[in-house]
Amino acid sequence: xxxxxxxxxxxxxxxxxxxxxxxxxxxxxxxxxxxxxxxxxxxxxxxxxxxxxxxxxxxxxxxxxxxxxxxxxxxxxxxxxxxxxxxxxxxxxxxxxxxxxxxxxxxxxxxxxxxxxxxxxxxxxxxxxxxxxxxxxxxxxxxxxxxxxxxxxxxxxxxxxxxxxxxxxxxxxxxxxxxxxxxxxxxxxxxxxxxxxxxxxxxxxxxxxxxxx
Length: 213
Hints:
- By secondary structure, this protein is an alpha/beta fold.
- It has helices spanning 38-47, 62-65, 68-75, 86-90, 92-98, 169-180, 199-205, 207-212; strands at 5-11, 16-22, 28-32, 51-56, 79-81, 111-112, 118-121, 124-130, 139-143, 148-151, 154-155, 158-159, 188-191, 197-198.
- It starts with a strand and ends with a helix.
């Protein structure tokens, strides 16, 4: 496979990392966490010559799913997430009201993702890793020949919040320790917010992993 097409866009008022992954041969793409600024997402897809074939989510907090309905309508691509976060998705209007966001377009879920399932677009594939803790249905995606997309499970120098609905500190630490820190040290990690990092860097410098890992 030729070099993976990969682009990270910072979208929405809460600066979510939306990731476009594209197969350079078929020009089919996966969009991860379209949390807002869907006109920008569509523009970059068009500039890259990509057709969105799958919309997937690391979890269902507002800042990661706010633009999903609009992108689904525009592309016809199926939407996937873990069933554990369905209550959050169903509460999307309430989430929007809490943060004074406009009411998002309704989202239709086409597929529930489970641990070790695979998301594909053309020759591109991403393995699903269930990492509960930030939310019950939090997922990471390990892209073949590419990065780990970690959502709000792991950040550069930090971890996801566990004081919101469904959060569990022990669960997130177990997810990070058992599922993410076992990956090769040079694995690039794209978190749900902020700059990229690597597994090795977080092993050495992340205070949560050093204290609880």
